Amino acid sequence: MGSLTTLAQALGIAYASGINLYATVALVGLADRMGWIGPLPGALGAVSNAWVIGVAGVLAVIEFLATLVPGLASAWETAHSAVRPPAAAALAVATAWHGDPAFIFITALLGGGLALSTHATKLGLRYAIDTSPEPVTNGVVNVAELGVVASLSYFVWNHPYVSLAVALALLILLALTVRIIWRVLRRVLSGRWLSEREVASDARATAGRRTAGGRG
Known about the structure:
Elements: H1 3-19, H2 21-34, H3 50-66, H4 72-79, H5 84-95, H6 101-129, H7 135-158, H8 160-189, H9 196-215
C-alpha cells in the first residue's frame, strides 16, 4: 500500500472522527469485523475488538441522545473540543503505524488539524441550530452527520482519494453555509434583518406619509 493511499485513509478517519468520534470507531470496527472492509492498516485493526466496538457504540448512542437537547447539544460539542482532535490524530497515527516515523508524525499533524477543522465547523453549526428551541433540527443534523460518517468510514478504504476529495468539498461547503447562517442570525438578533434598500424604501414611504398628513 502506497504512502499516499495510507495518508488519504488516515485523513479520512480523522475527518470522520472530527464529526463523531464514537460513531466512527464503532462503524469502522464493525465493518472490519463483518468483513465489509479491511484488513485495516497499521494498528487500526484494534478497533474491531468487540469491547472497543461495544464501548464506542454505547458512547455514540449517548452522544446522539444528548445532542437532541437544545443547550445540552452545544455543551456536549464544546466539551468534545478537547476530545475529538487528539483522538482523531491518534487514529490517524494508528492507520499509518507501519510506515516511516517521519511519515507517522506528518500524518498525526495533518489528521489532528483536519479533525480540528471539521469539529470547529460542526461546532459552529451546532451553536447556530441550537438557537431553535426544539429537537427536530438537532435530530436532522444528527442523522445527516451519521450518514456522512458511515459513508466515509466505508468508502475511504475502497476509494480513498475520491472519498477524501468529496469530504473536503463538503467541509468547505458546510463552512460557507455556517458563515451565512451566522450572518443572518446576527442581523435578525440585532434587528438589522432588512436590507439597506428595504430600509431606505421604508424611510421614503414614512416620509411620504408624514408629508401627505401635513398637507392634509
